[in-house]
Structure formats: C-alpha cells, structure tokens
Amino acid sequence: MEPGSGEGGAAGALHFHGDEEIIEVVELGPPGPDDLANEMDDVDFDEEAVEGAGEQAWETEEEDEGVEDGMEAQDDSEVTFSEHSASVFCVSLDPTTNTLAVTGGEDDKAFVWRLSDGERLFECSGHKDSVTCAGFSHDSKFVATGDMSGLIKVWQVDTKEEIWSFEVGDLEWMEWHPQAHILLAGTADGNSWMWKIPSGECKTFQGPSCPATCGRVLPDGKRAVVGYEDGTVRIWDLKQGSSLHVLKGQDGHQGPLTCVTSNKDGSLVMTGSVDCHAKLVNSATGKVVCVFKMESATSKPPAGEAESNSVESLGFCNVMPLAAVGYLDGTLAIYDISTQSLRQRCQHESGIVQLLWEDSSAVVYTCSLDGAVRLWDARSGKMISEYRGHSAEILDFAVNKDASIVVTTSGDHQAKVFCVQRPDR
Fold first, then answer.
1. What is the pLDDT of residue 66?
2. Cβ distance 252 to 232 under 8 Å?
3. Which of 253, 278, 327, 343 could form a disulfide with 231 if both were Cys (CB 3.0 to 4.6 A apart)?
C-alpha cells in the first residue's frame, strides 16, 4: 500500500494531444461516503474459495548492492525500530493520526508501533510465512497483515485483538478500500479478492491463469486496476464484479506488471512493467494515452543475457501535470504529462525500489538499494537532500501527510524514522 493518495482532484480538465486524436480527461468528483456505504451494502458476494497456488520464493538482494562498508557510521534517523529479526519488507502509516506504523518482515512477524519513540503497541502474531503486505484501513480503526502463503489477518487497533482471518493462494498484493472497511488482495492464481470487514463477505474477480502481480483501488472507490504477469491490465467494476476494460497485446505490456497507480481524481491510470515501459491509460475509456519508454543509460546486455532494467515504481504529482517513474537501473524519470515528454532525469548509483510524491508539492522521494532516501525537486531535477542510516538496501518506505517524516524498512532487519521537515520548504 502506498500512502499519500489524497481525496478530490485539481480543478479543470487536462488535455492530451496524441498523434491522431485529442483525449480529454475530465474530472469527476468522488461520491460521498454515504452513497458508497449504501452501494457496498448491496454488493453480491461470491462465497467460493479458490485453492492456493504453488509455492513461491521471496528473494532479497543477497549482495548488498552499492552498500558501503562504513555506511552504518552515518545515521540521520530519529528513531530505530529493531524488533524484527530478519529483512523488513513493508511499512504503512495510520492515515488519520500518522502516529503509528505497521511493519512486516521475513521473520513471519508484523508489529504495530509508535513513530515517536519506536515503542511496540502489539504484535500481529500467527503468520507462518514472510509478511509482505501490511496496512491500516482508511480510518485507522483496523490494520491488515498478509503473508506470502496467503494468510491474511485483520486486527482492531484500539483493542489490539485479531477480528478476522482468511487464507487465499500465494499473496501478491493487498490494499484497503479508500473509503470503506473493505479489503482487496491479488494472488498467484490470477484471482483478486474483496472482503467486507469484519463480516468477511467475499467476492472474487477472476483474471488470467497467471499471478495478479499488482493492484490499486481507484479514488472513486468503485473500480480497481489490476496488473498481471502476462502483461495484461484489467479495470474491474467492484460492485458488478465484471471487467470494464482489458488491455492486452499492443495495449498491454510485453512483460509482467510491476506496479500500477492512478492520479488524484482517478481519471488516469499509469502502469509499469519489466518491459521498461510505463503506460498512461484513460480509466474511463480504457485507451492508452501515451507510452513512456526509457532508453537505458547503460549499453544493451550481450545476446542471451536477461535485460536487467525494469519499472519498479510510479507516481503522479498532485500539483503539476507530472509523473515520476523509477527504474531498476537507478534512473528517476520525470515526465511532463501535457507534452508527453521527458522533463528531468535524476540518476541514482543503484536501483530505485520505490518512489512517492509529497501530497502538496512537486517534490518526489526515492528509496534505493544503496540504503538511502533522497528528496528531488521534480521541476529542476536537482536533489534537495539525502538521508542515510541503514546498512542494507531499503525495501519499502512511507511518507506522512505533511511530509515531515519518512519511515523506511530494510534488509538490515530495522525500520527507521527520519525527520525530513525543513524550514525553507
């Protein structure tokens, strides 16, 4: 789950000029919570469970790429959470107060802890495999944790008690609905699941017979975009359980999807893949608006060797028509959506794991395999600041609402809290 997906959208309409046609994306306001609750109440849920898929291995970077020997000496963090005994794979912040974090790791454990002092509130116990997904519901009332084997648990934060659990096939991704107590997840057998919490009423969305590698609920709360290992993308109607649009062949990707996201009003979807392409899609029509292709800075690998580059993370700027794409070769590309052109190229020495935009500015954050968090001014392409403290690669990170705190997780078994607020920003 990625933080920073605010509600509403910028005023006005964006116009995209393709070679042959003009695609106009007009903002549609999101429905009110009452409308959503009523709509979700009469959803027909499918009770059928699907058998789990085969075993799947989780690999971390064995060689700490780009991590210098003396890196532990510099620690810019304010708080370190060190109760995990193996790599920490995921982190999420509670959206209402931004005072709590949940982290999950290779030690089959997840913890809810306090950002101010790193004190553990409770352990989300009972997992039997690496916890790779964890997140708070929209109102911070519940926290969900999911492990690779497909065991998902939901906990009530104030009572610290488990209130629901369910087992699916090998878990690929998991995300809370942005306005309701509804949890979605994608599995290695190609299915996407939706549950009402805590009743557990269930609906499945059957994809192709290959892993549903990434997914995102769109801001209207009525649709979700899911990417698959075969390069296809589907936009699902959550109420009807049917796919509104299927992108495949030329419209899809030539390799497995790695990430999907949407802009603030949900009118545009962006998809990323191991094929090194990022595609902009009009979510209403399912049409590809444009394709961002990155020419690699490094030379092509010899014949027979695998391409080492891929799109690892994506994000839209909320205040300017900009999109950021992070690549495994360390390139952060800032694209201008209105001209469909590359605006800035910010080079990292090692691969980018994830990127996030500040909610209300043109500043983009990256975390990378060299263990550093960096802040970039997307307008100038210049690095604003860099924060270090981990002795291994950063595997996930989250930014709080007012962009004053960054929380990172790493292969060094730790999570860290960095204060990034600056008086001149």
1. 44
2. yes
3. 253
